[in-house]
Amino acid sequence: MTSGDNQGDIADFTRAIAINPQDANAYYNRGNAKFELGDKQGAIADYSQAIAINPQYAPAYNNRGAIKFDLGDNQGATADYNHAIAINPQYDAAYNNRGLARFELGDNQGAIFDFTQAIGINPHDAAPDLGDNQGATADYNQAIAINPHYDAAYNNRALARFELGDNQGAIFDFTQAIGINPHDAAAYYNRGNVYFNLGDNQEAIYDYNQAIAINPQYDAAYANRGNVKSDLGDYQGAIADYDQAIAINPQDPEAYYNRGLAKSDLGDKQGEIADFNQAIAINPHYAAAYYNRGIAKSDLGDKQGAIDDYNQAIAINPQYGAAFSNRGYAKFELGDNQGAILDLTHAITIDSQDADAFNNRGLAKFELGDKHGAIDDHSQAIAINSQYSFAYFNRGIAKSDLGDKQGAIDDYNEAIAINPKDIDFYINRGLAKFVLGDKQGAIDDHSQAIAIDPHCADAYLNRAATWQSLANTTQMCADLAVASRLGDSAAQEYFARMCQ
Questions:
Q1: How far apart are CA 260 and CA 275, in angstroms?
Q2: What single string gives the DSSP state of each residue in 220-238?
Q3: How do the residues of the chain divide into helix, strand and coil, expressed in percent and rounded to 5?
Q4: pTM recorded for the entire structure
Q5: pLDDT tens, residue by residue, 198-222
Q6: Closest Cα partner for 116 from 65, 58, 176?
Q7: Where are the beta strands (DSSP E) in 42-164?
Q8: Dist CA 239 CA 255 (whole Å)
Q9: What is the pLDDT of residues 80-132, one digit of tens each?
């Protein structure tokens, strides 16, 4: 036994050992005192000496194993727990601890077995009736008195079950742990994670709320509650939770990263970039932070800065298909079509279901004059995602450029059916109809574009050209006048020449 005065205890046990060098208990207790003072190697040496004197000293094996586990030696820890269990098959703490070591080694089934053994050693139903708070407290105290590792075993088995995809089994075990110890913030937190994984956001939020109520400094609970709120579209609420997580733990790159994503959803690009900067400063190997900062820079018009960030993401993760895809599109926007095709092809090699990569490679091929190749790529994008309106639209442009106006109209029809609010779809379909002689259809399409956006000068200008072909000078001049007021220089020239 120790008194709490660890230095004094060490001195006392050292004197006892000097008197009786075969006193295994003195070595064991001195090891405990050394451990309390942070002298882990000294503690291991004393536990080893106790075992040498008494090879049946199960607690010495267990405690030595716990220190090895703490030092990252999971194999060595497991070996010690094996000895402790062989000596005492009813040693619940050793089963629980071996389960933890097995869990860290990736042996989830072995971990579940051990945690189940730890639970099975205690035949008492220690779960309290949560409706009777005073009785619950009494039952909890009794449960701890019977077996202080009981709720931990449920917790740990739940984690192993979760890793194996057994979400319902994990929920059952976390609920049991909470029943034993209603003040176990980690059990609420972990059960919340399982509910979130199952898409049950309200239950997840309830559990994170409970974890935070028990432990107001639980940064991970704030952060994960923020993730749920973000998933529900409550971006301001999410940001408030990330703020709390960061205030408690300013070195958590995930909290900055996720806050950046929430700011992105609110349109705060500069705030988003600032958070990604922080995440990268904490973790310079955070590929996703570079990638998303690149997207933000691209949205702000900094295409080269975006490429630089995609370069960093790819250097960290050479299989980052989305980074290749976005870098390719940024190169396309800068006019580097060959470079774009190389990146987009690489993205497709990594992920053959990347519809955006096919669509954007089609755009680059079109710019290089490979219209048929462009059509093939847009078709592939549509095969992957039949609701990809822009792939239909872009394929329509390529068909139109090759003279297939009806094929183009068919594609524009599909694009409009999917997204009836994009004015470019109507304008291009109107132009194709005009070429095919369907002038009323052309007018209708340009009118629809104007109804969606009354400030679209191109729609007025194109409709004016259609009115001109129908010899309707009044309507032509009316449309040219509006396009002129909207700042279209061609419309201004035509209006001055033809309407004044």
A1: 5
A2: HHHHHHHHHHHHTT-HHHH
A3: 80, 0, 20
A4: 0.76
A5: 999 999 999 999 999 999 999 999 9
A6: 176
A7: none
A8: 9
A9: 999 999 999 999 889 889 988 898 999 989 888 887 888 888 644 333 333 33
